[in-house]
Amino acid sequence: PAVAATAPVKTRPRPASHFVLVPFVAQGHIIPLVDLARILAERGARATVVTTPLNVARLRGAAEHAARAGLPLELVELPFPPAGSGLPHDCQNADMIADNYQFLPFFLALRELAGPFDAYVRALAPRPSCIISDWCNPWTAGVATSLGIPRLFFHGPSCFFSLCELMAANHGLYERIATAGDEDKHAVPGVPVPVTVTKANVPGFLIHPFLEELRAEAMEAMCTADGVVVNTFSDLEGKFLACYEAELGKPVWALGPLCLSNRDAQATASRGTMAAAAAQKAITAWLDEQAPGSVVYVSFGSIARKLPKQLFEVGHGLEDSGEPFLWVVKEREAAAPEVREWLDALEARTEGRGLVVRGWAPQLAVLSHRAVGGFVTHCGWNSLLEAIAHGVPVVTWPHFSDQFFNEQLAVDVLGVGVPIGVTAPVMIFDDETVPVAQEDVVRAVAALMGGGKEADERRKKAKEYGEKARKAMEQGGSSYENLTRFVHSFTRSEAKEH
Ligand code: UDP
Question: What are 196's strand-pairing partners?
Answer without folding.
Answer: 187
